[in-house]
Amino acid sequence: MSERELLDLLAQDAPVARPGLADDVINRARHTRLRRGAVSAACAAVALIAAVPLALAVDRSPHPAHRTTPAGTTNSSAGTTTLAPGPSDTALAYAAGVQYLAGQLVSGKHWRVLYVIDHTCANTVDQTEACRPQPIPIELQRDLATALRPYAPVHFVSGDARIRDKNLQVINGGAAVTLGRITLDGDTARLPLAVQCGGLCGMGQTLLLAKQGGVWTVTGSTGPAWIS
């Protein structure tokens, strides 16, 4: 089909020319443009209203870098840091007393291991009394082992029969420790204690301790004592 024939067909469907036809076309174009603008504005308003609650929810949620878990660990982008508690005051006082008396028993000796009886006794100093054992709680055992780790390894045992050889010497170059009932009073403590390494190698006494600068130190002793 030629260009001329195409123009003739278009001319047949074109509206009859009349006065004001051009103005009608322009007005309709303006109306269409205004309607499209109104629709676009309404869409933008809906999007803005929907975005506000989402923004508030994000703002109220904890920041990932400072979120704390129930276990007390802090999560951060660099990793997880756990703040583990240190040994209790009771364990630190016991450790100071054990280290002091073990050092007094054989001056300068390095103990390869400390065998600690897993219960306290009432007769660590006065051996005419009965032991009347009281179990040492697992938490205190753990804390005491941690506090004494720089001094010597700790093993808890139910009695000293299995840690002695036929000559009653403590095996593996170790010492047997029997703890008494400690009494804490603020920054002071009273601790009955016995340390033995053989039949004729042992001593027991009641130590007095004080916490100075956050560290427990033996300041003296009180009452009766024994040595073998």
Structure overview:
The protein is an alpha+beta fold. The chain folds into two domains: 3-62; 89-227, Roll (Nuclear Transport Factor 2, Chain: A), CATH 3.10.450. The chain has helices at 3-13, 21-60, 89-105, 138-148; strands spanning 73-76, 79-82, 114-117, 119-120, 134-135, 154-157, 175-179, 183-185, 188-198, 201-212, 215-227. Strands 3, 6, 7, 8, 9, 10 and 11 form a seven-stranded mixed beta sheet that branches. A two-stranded antiparallel ribbon has the order 1-2. Strands 4-5 form a two-stranded antiparallel sheet. A hairpin with a 2-residue loop joins strand 9 (188-198) and strand 10. Helix 3 packs across helix 4 (138-148). It is globular. Mean pLDDT is 78; it is low at 51-77.
